[in-house]
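Open question from group meeting: does this chain pack into something compact, or does most of it stay loose? Before anyone orders reagents, we agreed to write out a predicted structure and look at it together. Recording both the input and the output here so the notebook holds the full record.
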Amino acid sequence: MPIPLAPAETARYQRLNLALGLAFGMANLAVLLLLPILIRLNVLGLGWAWAVWAIPVALLSNGFWALQHEAIHNLFAADQADNKQAGRLMGILFGSSFRILRFGHLMHHRFNRHPLDRPDSYDRTASSVLKARCHFFGEIFGGLYLIEVLTPLLYLLPQRVIHRLLDWIYAGEDRRLRQLRQLAQQALGSARAINEIRQDAGTVLVLYGSAFVLWGKLWWVLLGFVFVRAMLISFLDNIYHFRTPIDRPDFAYNLRLAQPFRALIFNMNFHRVHHSHMQLPWWALPREFSRSGEKFDAGYGHAALAQLRGPAPTDMLTSDK
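Structure tokens returned:
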């Protein structure tokens, strides 16, 4: 069992979460709405040079996602309602809907390596190597983020169409897919869920639509900001599960990473520890790693670049191989 968390320590880190959440939120809002105004007004005579500040915000996208990840697991704040509110706000700034992001991630934990959760593998009898590689590289080079952004927009369609789409997305006779279809209809297909996702999608459209109007002729800066975010989020999302055994849903890699960089992704490199103890917040993961005698499986950079090998046949990704 993990070492119990001290209430005072938990409260201190949750205050830090709030401060960091505000910082991430303000930084993203600044890129979307403030920087183009500063450029238009030529504040301090810097002109378009203000756009440079979008670069560090884009490069910190994985940290922004990792903090939202804490809200997904109800670890961002002590109160569940505060978690949800923070998660929704971060999700909108992220360009998506918290309810959709939360469902997808929690199902990843519950059904890790299910047929839709292993883009790094393919069935030789059902797919060609070329098709599998196009799907995999499309997903890690921006496609994952694109899916997360576009999915809420589908909720602007009629309710009956949404239900059909959910059944289509989770189609299949695999036991886990049947369960996922049922859970998706409950969590994402109820009237309350549809209304919430529509509200988030509408807010995203207004926010990002306003941003593109404000950026005007420099729209390409905003597009570049979103592009960098999409690439970083998509490329680094699955490195902890790349070519891991599909018959080991409990498995994930712990990846070696220097302390300053670990802080930037809120210790998500201790990923097997996280999967084993989802109730632990980001700041407790290194301590549990040491206490449990866990080991690193590879370096973070090496694991990221290993993805360039592409997907492998499912029959090669079993624990006895």
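Observations to bring back to the group:
The longest strand covers residues 121-122.
The chain has 14 helices and four strands.
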